[in-house]
Amino acid sequence: DLHQGDLKDQDLFTCSVCLDLLKDPVTLHCGHSYCLSCIKGCWDEEDQNGVYSCPQCRRTFRPRPDLHKNNVIADLVEKVRKTRRYAGPGDVECDVCTGRKVKAVKSCLVCLVSYCDTHFKVHNEANPGGKHTVMDATGPLQEKICFKHNKVFEIFCRTDQTFICYLCMTDKHKNHDTVSAAAERTEKQRQLVETQRRSQRRLQEREKELQELRKAVETLKHSAKAAVEDSEKIFTQMICSIEKRCSEVCELIRDQEKAELSRAEGHLERLEQEIVDLRRRDAELEQLSHTEDHIHFLESFPSLCVPPGSSDVPNITVNRSFSFQAVEDSVSALKAKLDDFSQWQVEKISRSGSMQTFLELRVTVLERPSHSTSSEHSVNALAQIWPNVDLTNAGEGQAGRTVTLVTSLRLPKFRGCRMKRIYLKERKSSCHDSTF
């Protein structure tokens, strides 16, 4: 019965728990085999009772047997697995298989049945000579059969752009432009070759542009890295220069302070000595004024009336408003000028950077003669594709002609950076193309 023996042999290697081919098969003492994970799961639920049984024959085991992989069965299962492929989502199922369906590989347009490898061999043995028309099982067979006449689609109606059977030619599609499906396939095959050729050429162009863009990106990264390193180096040198100037100014202030303090200390010593002498002379005068010896008074008076060193000590005028405010004002003015100059230079760098374009995308929008769209609509369509890119230079197109829009991605430009300009251009194709 359609090689049911092969299916029965395969059923021997099916786990009765998961109903799939055995995975890591183990064989119990009763002779039944299971997936290692399946029998472990069953016995884990029986741990409470301490009695373990075979899910098929119910033979019990105590204590719980040790499980080991049966390598002989594992090898046989692997051979079966290679010759058996179950149908998954989107696959065509074998119409002959019972239980779990195997993926179909061929469909017979005479029997109107899809077969797996095993059943297709049986079909060929039952129909020798290749009299039946078969095809690859690429889709449900029902989609290739006329539901009205229950005949296979063999004709293509160019008028209605649909598949029909030969009986439809004398019915609904009478006097229509019809050809065989094979003839239409030949025509479309030529178009496919041309489309494939254009696609391959475009692929090569895109791959070349991709490589150029990657190189440009790497150049940009290296250039930006070099600019950052150079900028940090220059700013470090500027900081060192400012620190050096700061040290020089501080040293000048300290030198001036030291000189002025030295002069003041000399005057302080002389003034202190003069005060000592004057106090001693004042005491002598006070003592002389009270003496009763007229002779001693007259002898001492001339020497005590003249202050010692009065002609040698100059008068001292102290500038109480002396300060280093002028130095502070000069340093503040230098800071303000440096801030203004650095701000002007940063703005200059920013302005020069905004004038350079790193990447330009040139997109050609093709308009159909029967569905001509305005340039504004084209811009809106591109804006949805590149929401973060400014669209400029949008020209107005005419029916059947191209409209080129230029998009730009702008990045800052720094002195010493070299950025390569890349153009990505869509190849101009026929007006029947509708893709950007």
TrEMBL record:
SMART domains: BBOX, RING
Domain B box-type: 141-181
RING-type domain ranges (all copies): 15-58
Name of the protein described by the UniProt record: Uncharacterized protein
PANTHER family linked to this entry: B-BOX DOMAIN CONTAINING, E3 UBIQUITIN_ISG15 LIGASE TRIM25-RELATED
Keyword Zinc found: yes
Classification via Pfam families: TRIM_CC (PF25600), zf-B_box (PF00643), zf-C3HC4_4 (PF15227)
Coiled-coil blocks: 193-230, 254-288
